[in-house]
Amino acid sequence: MRLKQHKTQLKVLKTMSLFKFFTRKLKMNTSQAEMILSHLKHKPISDTVAREEYGCRRLASRINDLRNNGYSIETVTKKTVNRFGRKCTYAEYYLKNDG
Known about the structure:
Arc Repressor Mutant, subunit A
């Protein structure tokens, strides 16, 4: 009887810790999305800027979250030369003014 009670308590604790993990992750993503949206209202953003200024390592995912929330964001592919002298491309995101 006592063993069964402990197993039930253990399941509850595991469920609570998973809930805390996912809600913490959700808050972090929401916060990053809000910071990125604020940035986009003033100027475009690239992956490098998002990583350095906001600690966002997956900008495309945050942009997708914003698009799913109804924001109209345009992607422009730009060309550059990397630090090794090779040609490469990167994405820069703009908030469209629908008006």
